[in-house]
Design the sequence.
């Protein structure tokens, strides 16, 4: 069984739930079925894109 491939839109929405809407990482992780590790990685990745370090 391979790892799931989430779209960029899904990742952005998941991170937005944490950064813009104020949900806890654990809550978003449980609701979306995504590991907390993945959410933190996506958050770092999107922060780099926004700051222009990509």
Sequence:
């Amino acid at each position: 069984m391979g790892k799931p491939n989430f779209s960029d839109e899904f990742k952005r929405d998941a991170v937005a739930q944490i950064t813009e809407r104020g949900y806890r990482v654990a809550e978003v992780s449980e609701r979306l079925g995504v590991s907390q590790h993945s959410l933190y990685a996506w958050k770092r990745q999107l922060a780099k894109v926004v700051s222009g370090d990509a």
Summary: DSSP finds three helices and no strands in the chain. The chain has one domain: 10-51.
